[in-house]
Prior knowledge:
The protein is of the alpha+beta class and 246 residues long.
Amino acid sequence: MIVLGIAEDKNKHEFSITGVDNVEDIETQIFNDNNNISCLNRPVIQNNDVQISFFQNKTIIQVIIHPEPFNTRPITAFGKAYIRTGDRDRVATKEQLKYFTVESQSEIDTHLLPSTYTIEDLDAESIKEYRKIIEEKGIINTNSQLSDQEFLYSIGVFRKDRLSNSNEYHLTDGGLLFFGKYISITDRFPRFQLDYQQYNSDNSTNWNDRVSAGDMNYPTLNIFSFYNLVLAKIETSIRVVLVKSF
């Protein structure tokens, strides 16, 4: 949030309300710059993102800037992109710009989601089943002492945000698609859909078995659980065909 009409005494580390004069002119200038391609490469605010408030008989302007979707980053101001590090915005380095370029190419396996996505957005049964499978196959030592969160860190479902000083771990798009609860997946990918239909013959118009994302019979369907459900059905149908052929 950007607040206009607040003064800071940097020596005393204190803030005071000074107010804004010519509010209408400033508000008009904000929207003019917002829609000026020579200022910003694309608009970042809507009408309801600018709010006029009154405190101590003085007027302040609050401008809310929402996080930009990964595939439209970076936003540039006067031809330069900025990264928030520490207490201020700094011009993005070439390496950081390369990161944005790669991130915008619809790569979903390592893209980091906002911190509002947590392990609670993942299906616990899917994680439990996956740990059991890879332990039985000896693919990786899952170490039963590891919590689910630590296990997910170890296989890259959560990855460290290396562009931030916080070093926090964030859920990846790939992790969400693979282990996520259906409703959490569709918050990120509204068009997410997995659908398996089985017919008695090539000429049939009605299916006799179906596994579909969003179906009330499969409320937590993700890629992993869909794969397991459908694989079992395919194996069963193949056995039936082989038995009838003899």
